[in-house]
Amino acid sequence: MKLSGWGAYPRIETELAAPRDEAELAEFLVRGDAVARGNGRAYGDAAIGRRRTLSTRHFAHMLDFDAERGWLTADSGVLLSDVISAFLPRGWFPLVTPGTKYVTLGGMVASDVHGKNHHKDGSFQTCVEWFDLMTPDGRVQRCSRTENSELFFWTFGAMGMTGVVLRVCMRLLPVETGWIRQKSIVAGNLAEAIRVFEDNLDATYSVAWIDCVAKGADLGRSIIMLGEHATIGQIPPDDRHRPLHLPVRGKLSVPFTPPAFCLNRYTLRAFNALYFRMGARKAAKQGGVSLEHWDSYFYPLDSILGWNRIYGRRGFLQYQCVIPLAQAEAGMSELMEATAEAGAGSFLAVLKRFGAQESRISFPMEGYTLALDFPASERNLALIGRLEDIAIAHGGRFYLAKDAHLTAARFRASEPRAEDFARTHRQFHPMMGSALSDRIGL
Amino acid sequence: MTKPPVLILGARSDMALAAAHAFAAKGHPLQLAARDAARLDAARQDLELRHRVSVTLHDFDVLDLASHAAFLDSLPGLPGVVICAVGAMGDQTESEQDPDLAVAVMRTNYEGPAHVLGLIANRFLARGNGTIVGISSVAGLRGRATNYVYGSAKAGFTAWLSGLRNRLARHGIHVVTVLPGFVATRMTEGMDLPPRLTAQPDEVAQAIVSAVERGRNVIYVRPIWRLIMAIICAIPETMFKRMKL
Predict the structure, then answer these.
(1) Over residues A26-40, mean pLDDT
(2) Boundaries of each FAD-binding PCMH-type domain copy (chain A) (predicted)?
(3) Is residue B106 part of a domain?
(4) Which of A1, A322, A418, B22 is the most exposed, having the fewest neighbouring CB atoms within 10 Å of its CB?
């Protein structure tokens, strides 16, 4: 069957299996050329196996919760949304969460996801105590910082190439409420936005939405949103008796795939201008401080089921790079100029400061990350190639969970660690294979 | 307010487990019954962790009719809701060759479920309330060459549920008949089912919860099945017998 990632581009032929238990999984795995697939939220082709794709949806039990330490042990196919539904009412929230809650724990390990608090808390690996990994020989190994530590560290960000994660023990964060105290700040251009980030490194959460259509003096104008978990005293008195009982918000859905012409430079320009104005108005009220429901703060797009369809049948591509701190401003402004020049601005342009992080092959490093999305078209594919070259020229690298475009040559140019990985890959796990790993030579 | 316990018969099936999650999420304690119930321990732990409800496991063999009364006595209490998800499709061709296999399919899908639910119905009657949910099948609405052994047993079960509903309605006991259509479960794994007609186990579970809460009688999970079956049942027999279905 043909499978695609969340971006619906590309669509690739593979054989999809959903093993019921470890023995069945091992049978598939030892035949090689496979990769695990969680909930299919990687945008590109990371979770499409070279020949076989192994769904982890039958590995979905929660196994244990240590309420003293906030340690949850669960199968790799458990969704983050289920973790939140089960544990937020008990006063726990994920320490690191990506921008959607519909990811599996196994996918979070393989992609080593990051959140709006990366500058403070690092990537997902920070809160993983251990995981059990089935390597392609069918053996199950417990991996932690002290046990099989090489395998532990290489698995984060390796996009499933070390094997299939079976179980994860993760640390949750104690919270008093399900509310986020948000402060919105307007930045008139890129330099200002970066200054706001640098001045607010002590904020727990920070992220900027950028108007990527704006040019010239307005280039990089943005709304920066800082956030802290609200304490009981900070929420309205009426809500204080049930501070944690905040179920997932009601859902809209995109009922059909609209034709591609609905999304053009005029609607994009209008959307970006409107969004900026709304953000600016919010920033002007009450010193820019507001209380946000956890679901709309962390997962604004999750409330529109099937939002990926707005880009039409051909699908869309995400582009996310990180550029090291010293070159960030120059690199980002080149990226934004190229995007605005092409008139191909995206709905969701996000800028974020990353903190320093040690990793073997994970995406984040200290600097700035920019995420853009584009409908799949010849012009945009060419643009993405240009954006990749700009990032590489500034010492940047790419988030493979979103990638659908990088070539092997560009991957090597962006990732000096790739050779080390290839060496380790051959040693640990010669048999895994995905459309992504084939394309970029991971 | 404590919610009444839900007993699930044939609890290992994908639909049954989905129903277990749906009722546990609403705060109902669970009694999970299946053969070799200890193998449901991971599911029990998962349900308790996620939903903070109590879950007990019980050995239950639908074909061992003599054990049913003792099985019910062994439960921690008479449940408020019982869901019968027991069923086995069998292999039609094998059933044709070997009538004994056909009888096993009939007993599993009709005789056994009707026996245990009959005992439960009488206990509900004595207490004066309760809800019985039987998962039957659209296959029981008209016999087709490809699965009429299974279909005939489900037809019997559907008629039995309908009669039970008729008998107990005036006594405050509600009976729900579920005709799910295609569902993506272990039973249908590997079959080439049309996605638009195929429900996920979670959808069936949500439909059951809402049917129990709203007191609905006969539910199809995806509404399209009501139409499909109306058409299939309307085809004149002279034509139907020549069709390949």
Answers:
(1) 95
(2) 9-175
(3) yes
(4) A1
Considering only A248-257, B34-43, B168-177, which range has the smallest mean pLDDT?
Answer: A248-257
Cα dihedral A229/A234/A237/A241 (nearest 10): 30
What is the per-residue pLDDT for A345? 66
Q: Which residues from A are below 8 Å from B49, CB to CB?
A: 62-65, 86
pLDDT at position A344, please? 72
Q: Residues of B with CB below 8 A from A86's CB?
A: 49-51
Task: Please judge whether A61 and B51 are an interchain contact, meaning their C-beta atoms are less than 8 angstroms apart.
Answer: no
Instruction: Find which of A3, A24, A61 to mutate to test the B interface (most B CBs within 10 Å of its CB).
Output: A61
Residues A385/A406, Cβ–Cβ less than 8 Å: no
Of A130, A122, A127, A124, nearest in space to A152 by CA: A130
Catalogue all structural domains in chain A, each as residue range(s) with its CATH number.
Answer: 2-55+423-440 (3.30.43), 62-174 (3.30.465.10), 179-407 (3.30.70.2520)
> What pLDDT score was predicted for residue A429?
63
The minimal CB distance from A62 to the residues B49, B186, B189 is found for: B49
**Domain total of chain B:** 1
Cβ contacts of residue B213 below 8 Å, gap of 6+?
Answer: none
Interchain proximity B186–A82, CB inside 8 Å:
no
pLDDT digits (tens, 9 = 90+) for A302-335: 877 777 877 778 889 999 999 999 999 999 999 9
A360-368: average pLDDT: 97
Query: Residue A20: its chain B contacts at CB < 8 A?
Result: 186
Instruction: Quote the tokens at residue A409.
Output: 């040559």
Q: What is the pTM of this model?
A: 0.93
Partner-chain residue, chosen from B43, B50, B186, that has the shortest CB–CB distance to A86: B50
B97 touches chain A (CB under 8 A): no
Residue A110's closest CA among A93, A92, A139, A131? A131
Task: Give B50's contacts in chain A (Cβ within 8 Å).
Answer: 62, 82, 85-86
Residues B157 and B161: their CA atoms lie apart, in Å, by: 6
H or E element that contains B16: helix B14-25
List pLDDT tens digits, range A222-280. Answer: 999 999 999 999 999 988 999 998 888 766 666 666 665 566 667 777 777 787 888 88
Mutate to test the interface with A, among B50, B189, B192 (most CBs of A within 10 A): B50
Does residue A65 contact residue A87 with C-beta atoms inside 8 Å? yes
Residue B15 lies in a domain: yes
Nearest chain B residue to A58 by CA distance is B14
Range of the domain at B61: 6-241
Average pLDDT of span B22-39: 97
Is B220 considered catalytic here? no
CATH of the domain at B165: 3.40.50.720
| Contact call for B46 and A61, based on CB within 8 A | yes
Paired tokens of A154? 């290489």
**B44 interfaces chain A, CB cutoff of 8 Å:** no
Confirm whether B1 is domain-assigned: no
Burial (0-12, 13-18, 19+ Cβ within 10 Å), A46: buried
pLDDT (tens digit per residue) in A68-85: 999 999 999 999 999 999
Which member of A18, A61, A64 has the closest CB to residue B43? A61
Residue contact A62–B50, C-beta within 8 A: yes
